Amino acid sequence: MISIILTLIQTSVADILYQNSFNSTIGIQSIPLNQYCSSLSQENKLRVMLTQQSNNHSLLAICQTNLIDFEKFQTLFQQDNYHDYNCLVDYNAYILENQTQQIVLSQQKMPTLVSQYHNIFSIENNSCFAIIYSKLNSILILTIERIGIDDCVVNCKNQGICIKGFCQCTLGYLGFDCNIVSSNIHQNSYFHGLQIFYLDLITLQTNDYKLILNSELQYTIICYANSSHLLFTSNQNSIIYITEESIIQCKEATERLRIFTQLRYYSQFVIITNTTSVVKLAELEEQYYSIILVVSVLASILGVILLIMTLIYLLKIYKAKQAIKNKQQFENLMPAQQFMLVSDRVPEIKVETTCSICLESFKSSSLVRMTYCEHIFHSTCLEKWMKNNKACPLCRAGLDTQTIQSKKKIEPQNFKGKNGHGSILQQLSFFPKHDGTLHSIDGSLSYHSPVIKSLPINQPKNLN
């Protein structure tokens, strides 16, 4: 909204000297502007505008002489050839097919560098011609306005600032009115279609510049201080290369431009690319596949780690459930009881008064467990024992769950001796033998067993 208001104000302030709408035919038309150029003072300048109503295939040129030779005029489309005939064209507007092309005419003498950069034509001998070349029949409007010497041709676009009749553009915006948008080529990963890039020489960290692509494309490289005109792509290669010498020269040209206009300019190359297919950076493509490979490997490693952690977690849960189940089975098969309750149910001759594992005597209130082979141990002692052993510490009878369950179904028989009570050794020999850590080989108790030590052992009688 603000730009529209400023445009209206600028139009109302500007002094329109000539405006004419006409039908343009294919070919060249020449319009003398000598009367306007001769009346121009040092305090003013002329703005010549060509507005295309029907199509955007016409080109406006301001020349010192009347250039009506078609072949000579065609050379203006080539880089720097307009100097041969002292002509100036709004080449950027033509390339970008803008509806309006604008050129400024001034009596001030200025370097060609400044003239090209800001689309300013320096009048010599009060001679100037507006020459229009059309590819197709079209409706055109030619307007000539008088503006102040310190006025910009149009409102500066994209945060540009008008200073002494020149638009000072920010980085990335081109053209005498900052209307052309370009992209940082360092931040670009692929090329497609017609694109405009800039290479900032201030932030460039190498002496030269090379960009390797995965396939060829058409491109043109311009030092923007030397020529602000966007040119048709003329090179075709898979490598975009700018030499160190070209970079130094571009910086020097930018400095000369700054000294004359007292404006801030960016040392930059403008790179125009054009391709119908997608072209990527070769280095980026290699990095892309390297990144994919690294990510795939890391993802695989992470997946394996997660799988292992999951299996470990599930195994811990399984072991915890098994431990609870085993403890419940252990409690069911060999419940912990007070020693006095257990001793009341066992014949006096079988009652053990000492735990064969810790070798401490039982107390009436001691928590004990009795195996199916009728051996008694401290509850905690037997639990610790069975963590590493599945056999009775005394008789080596199997104490695994399956054996205990099978033995629980069959009550062991009491083998009685002559004295009316069962022999301990006879009862122990009834149970299956089991390898263990105590001194038990054939199923009988070792002499070192505390139980055997507590039993009276009769010496054999002398038969003699």
UniProtKB/TrEMBL annotation:
Q: What is its main location?
A: membrane
Q: What does the UniProt entry say about where the protein is found?
A: Membrane
Its ancestry begins with: Eukaryota, Sar, Alveolata, Ciliophora, Intramacronucleata
Q: Could you tell me which residue ranges the RING-type domain spans?
A: 355-396
Q: What is this protein called?
A: RING-type domain-containing protein
Q: One MF term from GO for this chain?
A: zinc ion binding
Q: Which residues cross the membrane?
A: 288-315
Q: Which InterPro entries match?
A: EGF, Znf_RING
Q: Per the UniProt entry, what species is this protein from, by scientific name?
A: Paramecium primaurelia
Ordered alphabetically, the record's keywords are: Membrane, Metal-binding, Transmembrane, Transmembrane helix, Zinc, Zinc-finger
